[in-house]
Amino acid sequence: MTKGSCLCGAVRFETEATPIKASICHCGQCRRQSGHLWASAQVPQDALTISGELRWYQASPDAKRGFCPTCGSFLFWQGTGEDMISFALGALDTPTGITLEKHIFTASKGDYYDINDTLPRHD
């Protein structure tokens, strides 16, 4: 069972599905919303149970972002029309057993840091 929550604990989530596609996103939207970069993995939406009040922000025509309205924690990302949902790896209870697979949107990464690992990179 993979479990997690927001900073204040008002929103909790869990899944028995095996998380896939663990990645670090360097896009401008993730950097702005998280304050740096965003690490996530995904599961089928119907395999994720969310409790507590969650708010969604339609960040673009292509995706929405779910967050806790109390503490502001950015917890979820979902592409429009997709049946998979991504969740914040930083919000998980440990140990997670998850291993990062790749970096995405590296062409948009901030100029104030370097990527110093050997994970695959996708512009």
From TrEMBL:
Belongs to the Gfa family. It comes from the Bacteria. InterPro entries: CENP-V/GFA (IPR006913), Mss4-like_sf (IPR011057). Residues 2-114 form the CENP-V/GFA domain. SUPFAM superfamilies: Mss4-like (SSF51316). The keyword Protein biosynthesis does not apply. It holds the Pfam family GFA. Keywords: Lyase, Metal-binding, Zinc. One of its GO terms (molecular function) is carbon-sulfur lyase activity. This is Glutathione-dependent formaldehyde-activating enzyme. The keyword Lyase applies. It comes from Pelagimonas phthalicica.
